[in-house]
Specification:
It contains 3 helices and 2 strands, in the order ααββα. It is mainly α.
Length: 82
């Protein structure tokens, strides 16, 4: 009877290890695909852009271009152009 109990305990323990490993694998595999915080940040940015940068004037819509506030300045290419 002891052998049967040992097999059941070993089987249960290895099953838990396999389940834990599979959970880790799928959480890493789906990383970035189901990232709800990124979607929410994008949604917030879109709502802010719509509220502050799009207006209806004289029968048509006027929209500002969506510039990044924290962008790096581009270097001059004057030497390459000449």
């Amino acid at each position: 009877m002891t052998l049967l109990n040992d097999l059941c305990i070993t089987s249960s323990a290895s099953s838990n290890v396999i389940n834990t490993t599979l959970k880790k694998f799928w959480s890493l595999e789906s990383m970035g695909i189901n990232d709800s915080t990124t979607k929410r940040n994008l949604q917030d940015a879109l709502e802010q852009y719509q509220d502050s940068s799009i207006q209806f004037c004289d029968g048509r819509y006027v929209a500002k271009l969506p510039w990044k506030d924290d962008h790096l300045d581009l270097p001059s290419n004057l030497d390459i152009a000449l």
